[in-house]
Design goal:
It comes from Acidovorax carolinensis. This is Restriction endonuclease. The chain is α+β, with helices and mostly antiparallel strands. It has helices spanning 5-17, 25-33, 48-62, 68-76, 87-101, 125-129, 135-165, 170-180, 187-202, 255-264, 280-294, 299-307, 315-323, 330-344, and strands spanning 66-67, 110-115, 118-123, 206-209, 217-220, 222-225, 238-241, 245-250, 270-274, 309-313. It has two domains: 5-158, no CATH class; 167-344. Helices cover 52% and strands 13% of the residues. Strands 6-7-8-9-10 form a five-stranded mixed beta sheet, sandwiched between helices. It has a three-stranded antiparallel beta sheet with strand order 1-3-2. A two-stranded antiparallel sheet has the order 4-5. Helix 10 (255-264) links the parallel strand 8 and strand 9 (270-274).
């Protein structure tokens, strides 16, 4: 997705206010990382790398060098940061910075240091000075830009939660799902909506288990979310008990993504919830045709991968599930949307 004027405005404005040129490396990086501030953006909020930059910039301005553990504790104390891990301070921020901006060495943001015999981290002075910039003003820009970003996504989340709480009729609920299925809707909202609809779809359905037909007993189907949208969950978004079916939510039709997902789970079958219109079989056929045209896999290997698609669920299927929700389920579905939204955005941490 290309940066539009709305995405760019607040970062560029803050940079200009601090006298930092628009082509500065940190300005360019923050432009990329703050796309999710736009309510309609598909970009997933990712605060780990931003918060690593934030605490390191704070240290630079204060003339401090902090231990690794202290930096991580400060990151976790920031809004939505309670569950952050140490990867941004180790290598993730540097890897992403290098990949997106094509720089290495001294221009990577996170540099190793030692404080009282323990590992520490500092923000690269060479990066802050790059292009002849005033390093203090660049550090102040980083702090101000990330603060503004967090304020914007907080406001957006509050607005979305208010929309859920304002649902009063089945018609209101349908309009909410239509917005979640829109092409420019937030990826997290789409996953939440998909989960709630599928959980409702399976509610009341049973399977029978027993050592023999005489001992078989009805067991309710239950759908569980495996983690948040950007969690390190191995690509498993939902799990259907007691069948052990796993689901993954995605917006792409790139066959390579699906084949890689199958390898991640040792070629265990997966049901995919795909943000695309059309019949599931038609979408699956398109994925197969793209794989064949690529010439990257043998026919036998493509056949193996295609056999692992347990089900393809599209927007058509989700809209059908939404249309079948009875008035009596409105409060339950609304409560689930609110709960999943709060869990997703760390509002219950």
């Amino acid at each position: 997705m290309s940066l539009n004027e709305q995405d760019m405005a607040f970062i560029d404005d803050i940079a200009a206010a601090h006298g930092v040129p628009a082509d500065n490396l940190l300005v360019q990086y923050l432009l990329r990382k703050t796309r999710a501030a736009d309510r309609g953006s598909k970009a997933r909020r990712s605060l780990g790398n931003l918060y690593a930059l934030y605490v390191l910039a704070e240290d630079y301005l204060a003339g401090n060098t902090s231990r690794f553990t202290d930096l991580l504790a400060r990151m976790r104390a920031l809004p939505f940061g309670a569950k952050l891990q140490n990867h941004p301070l180790d290598n993730r921020l540097n890897d992403e910075f290098s990949r997106q901006l094509g720089v290495n060495g001294e221009l990577l943001p996170v540099h190793a240091a030692v404080v009282a015999g323990q590992k520490a981290r500092t923000l690269s002075p060479a990066l802050l000075r790059h292009g002849g910039a005033d390093p203090t003003m660049v550090a102040r820009f980083v702090v101000a830009a990330i603060q503004a970003y967090v304020e914007q996504i907080t406001a957006n989340q509050s607005s979305a939660l208010e929309e859920i709480q304002a649902i009063e009729t089945i018609e209101d609920l349908g309009e909410f799902f239509d917005a979640a299925f829109a092409a420019n809707s937030d990826a997290r909202l789409f996953e939440i909506a998909s989960y709630v609809l599928l959980a409702e779809h399976y509610r009341g359905k049973v399977v029978y288990f027993g050592d023999s037909p005489a001992t078989a007993r009805a067991t309710p189907l239950e759908l569980f979310r495996a983690g948040r949208t950007n969690a390190n969950d191995g690509g498993i978004d939902f799990v259907l008990r007691p069948l052990g079916r796993i689901f993954q939510v995605t917006e792409t039709l790139d066959f390579r993504k699906y084949f890689l997902d199958f390898e991640k789970v040792n070629r265990y079958p997966i049901s995919f919830v795909i943000k695309v219109y059309g019949a599931g079989d038609e979408v699956k056929q398109r994925i197969q045709q793209d794989a064949v045209r690529s010439g990257l896999y043998s026919p036998a290997m493509i056949s193996v991968y295609m056999s692992l698609f347990e089900e393809v669920i599209t927007l058509d299927d989700l809209q059908g599930a939404a249309s079948r929700i009875p008035d009596s389920a409105l409060d339950r579905v609304k409560a689930q949307l609110s709960l999943q939204f709060k869990l997703e955005y760390g509002l219950l941490d």
